[in-house]
């Protein structure tokens, strides 16, 4: 019959079961306590200021070592032609000294020797004195290499710390202003210990590049900002760099996790 379906036993009309209630949207995240925000903000501000000063100091120290002059007394070289010598070399005729600005690597030493390759025979004694002076220059320059390594480690550590610090600031702003889920009681070690992690990563990067385990194309190892930028990237890309370190250790020691 019309008018709906009747139940066969009671004659009452069947009623369809109600569907599930629509899901309610999650409540908005509660903002983090203001005292927690102030605590992390103050730490980031103070530590970043100190790190910037430390980075400036370390850059100056490395620059001083790289640009230091090496001097060797050789006496009067007469009319020995030295016009073909490298630009960082000069002969102080007033003091009778060979002067070289910066470190003398193998290429620079070869260029200094080649500068007198076509010396006239009558200047052979002066040429011999000059070549002995070049050997002494190279030796004295190499003696300063230890101090350069220490300064590069300091520079790499400070630059790596600045890298992780920038990442921490970005995370702090994201969790405080956008996600609004800053959980200081859980994550405070992340913000306080991370600068130490960045310093270690920067030092490790300098050591690995110096040892040749990592090869970087178009490297300018004599430039301060090249080292600073490389260590900064290692700190900023902390996760990516540690993954690369794990791959290198697995390759060397043959262990797969």
Structure description:
With 257 residues, the chain is mostly helical. It folds into two domains: 34-65 and 145-253, no CATH class; 69-143, no CATH class. The protein is 60% helix and 5% strand. A three-stranded antiparallel beta sheet has the order 1-3-2, covered by helices on one side. α1 runs antiparallel to α4 and α1 (34-66) runs parallel beside α5. The model is unreliable at 1-11 (pLDDT under 50).
Would you kindly provide a brief summary of this structure?
This protein has helices at residues 34-66, 106-114, 124-143, 145-178, 184-211, 224-236, 238-253, and strands at 69-73, 89-92, 97-101. With 257 residues, it is mainly alpha-helical.
List key phrases describing it.
257 residues; mainly alpha; three-stranded antiparallel sheet; 7 helices; 3 strands; disordered N terminus
What topology emerges from the helices and strands here?
Blueprint: H1 34-66, E1 69-73, E2 89-92, E3 97-101, H2 106-114, H3 124-143, H4 145-178, H5 184-211, H6 224-236, H7 238-253
Antiparallel strand pairs: 1-3, 2-3
Helix pairs in contact: 1-4, 1-5, 4-5, 4-6, 5-6, 6-7
Give me the Rg, rounded: 34 Å
N-to-C CA distance: 74 Å
Give the count of helical stretches: 7
Query: Strand order across the biggest sheet?
Result: 1-3-2
Shape: elongated
Which segments are poorly predicted (pLDDT under 50) over 5 or more consecutive residues?
A: 1-11
What's the main sheet like?
3 strands, antiparallel
> What structural class do helix, strand and pairing data support?
mainly alpha
Helix content: 55-70%
Average pLDDT metric: 83
Name the beta content range: 5-15%
The succession of helices and strands, N to C, reads: HEEEHHHHHH
Number of domains: 2
How many strands? Answer: 3
